[in-house]
Design brief:
- The chain has about 60 residues and is of the alpha+beta class.
- It has a single domain, classed as Factor Xa Inhibitor (Irregular).
- It is about 35% helix and about 15% strand.
- The longest helix has 11 residues.
- About 5% of the residues are buried.
- The model has no long low-confidence stretch (mean pLDDT about 95).
């Protein structure tokens, strides 16, 4: 059997945490900030933990 290939698009977008979770960038951060409050803009900075309903699927893509 050949080795499983990592999905490179997913590998560039998601980071594994020490406890086995996944972090990813937030959605809604590319444009149209004038419609968002300062609090929304501030909280969209940085990374956030991926929802547990998606973790299994993305771990398979990343061969974790």
């Amino acid at each position: 059997m050949p080795k499983m290939k990592t999905n490179r698009a997913a590998a560039k977008r998601f980071k594994k945490t020490a406890n086995g979770g996944l972090k990813s960038a937030n959605a809604y951060t590319s444009h149209r900030f004038h419609g968002k409050t300062k609090k929304q803009r501030r909280q969209l900075r940085g990374l956030s933990m991926m929802d547990k309903t998606n973790v299994k699927r993305y771990k398979k893509m990343l061969n974790l």
